[in-house]
Each structure stands twice: as C-alpha cells, then as structure tokens.
Specification:
Blueprint lengths: L1 H4 L1 E4 L2 E4 L12 H10 L8 E5 L5 H9 L4 E6 L2 H14 L5 E5 L14 E6 L14 H4 L4 H4 L7 H13 E10 L5 H9 L4 E2 L3 E2 L5 E7 L1
The protein binds S-adenosylmethionine.
The site of S-adenosylmethionine (SAM) has 23 residues, from helix 3, strand 4 and helix 6.
C-alpha cells in the first residue's frame, strides 16, 4: 500500500518511498526513542551515522529532532540513495546530511564516514532461507538487499562491527535494530569488537528490538 501511495509516515514525518526502499516500520521508531533517551541534549552538534539508509527514515528523523546535528549515511543501492536524498530535501535537512553510495562489504568502506557520536543501523537481518517464507507483500515487493542478512541473518552486523570502532568516538553509542531473538548475538558480535552492551530497547510488542552499545 505504501508503494502505491508513494509515502509512509515515520515518527510523524512524511517519507517518500519507492520499491527500491524498505517501507519504514513502526518497530524502527524504537531506534529514535533510544537515541532521544541516550542523547538528551537536543541542541548539541552531535555527529550521526546511519548505515543502510533506505528511505533515510532513521538519520533524517534524527536530524529533524536535533537541529544542530550533522549526519552521514551509507547506502548500497543507488535507487534507494536517490529516495533518501529526496527525503532529506523535503524535510529541510539536506544541508546537514552527507548521503553516500557505498557498501560495507567492500574494503575501506568506513573512509570519510567518521568520527561520530552515534551510529545507527537497521541492516538486513532476515536469514536468507527465511526470506521467501515472509508475507508476500514483503518477500515479493520489498528489496532483497534490504532483507537478506545471509545464512544466519547476522552478516551485516559482522561487517559493520569490523569497522565500527574506527568510526564511533570513545564514549559514543551504537544503536542497532535486529530481529526477534537476535539481540544477544548482535550484542556479542559488537562486544567482541570493543563495545559494551547496554540494556536492549523493546518495541511496542515487547520484543527486544534495538541493541544499545557504548564505546
Ligand atoms: C532493512 S533496510 C533499512 C532501511 C532504513 N534504514 C529503515 O530503517 O527503514 C536495510 C538497508 O541497507 C541497505 N544495504 C544492504 N546491504 C548493504 C550494504 N552491504 N552496504 C550498504 N547498504 C546496504 C539496503 O539497500 C537497505 O536500504
């Protein structure tokens, strides 16, 4: 339905969507809720980074909520990146957003993206074999690149963890959305990369949805 309408609301803001991007989910608003609680000073010049922009809903909502902040974003799909850039313009935050084409599977992907105070990501986290079994409106219409997290669903977290310590300042935070039951594994991957796990954030269904880590 969102693809037909071409728009979906996220945190009360309108986001343009196309079949190149994941439709923003209410569950992902948990990332914003956590950020607001962990970074209460709204007028500080925070530096944000969003890995896997899609529509840009995470980074652009943060830039809307923190008017002195700047943000970088990485996206592997040129079509999705175009949607995120259009949303940045429409929301009036494009001047504070550096949105780039890039792939965290490629060597040197972190170049020019840090240092940041907060790294957020809602990467693909569905196990490859599970993708075809999802509801048809997801499996047939949403981009595979936005869904497929490899054999166990955790490939993206491993790749991001390998670069995260060079991007996030000491004392900075990482907030990662994950699927049901994945929070302990995600926390373990980032703990091995030098981050201290904090209490996970639950979504409205009571599922541990967002892993929080401190550098
Ligand atoms: C689950 S979607 C999330 C999109 C958006 N952040 C949201 O919360 O709605 C994951 C996004 O990561 C992008 N992506 C997947 N693999 C990537 C990679 N290796 N490097 C960069 N971006 C990637 C996908 O194209 C997709 O836009």
């Amino acid at each position: 339905m969102a693809y037909i309408l071409g728009e979906r609301e996220f945190w009360g803001l309108p986001f343009r969507v196309s079949p190149a991007v994941l439709v923003p989910r209410p569950d992902s608003e948990t990332v914003i809720e956590a950020a607001l609680a962990l970074l209460p000073e709204r007028d500080r010049a925070w530096r944000f980074l969003d890995l896997g922009l899609g529509s840009g809903c995470l980074l652009l909502t943060l830039l809307h909520l923190y008017p002195a902040a700047t943000g970088a974003g990485l996206e592997a799909s040129p079509e999705a990146l175009a949607v995120a850039r259009a949303n940045a313009e429409a929301l009036g935050v494009a001047g504070r957003a550096d949105l780039r084409l890039g792939d965290w599977r490629r060597p040197g992907w972190t170049g020019g993206l840090g240092p940041v105070d907060l790294l957020v990501s809602n990467p693909p986290y569905i196990a490859a074999a599970t993708v075809p079994t999802l509801m048809p409106e997801v499996s047939r219409h949403e981009p595979r690149l936005a869904l497929d997290g490899g054999a166990d669903g955790l490939d993206a977290y491993r790749a991001i963890a390998a670069g995260a310590a060079s991007l996030v300042v000491p004392g900075g935070r990482v907030l990662l959305e994950g699927g049901e039951g994945q929070a302990p594994d995600i926390a373990g991957i980032f703990a091995a990369a030098g981050f201290a796990p904090e209490a996970p954030w639950k979504d409205l269904s009571g599922i541990e949805r967002v892993v929080s880590l401190k550098h």
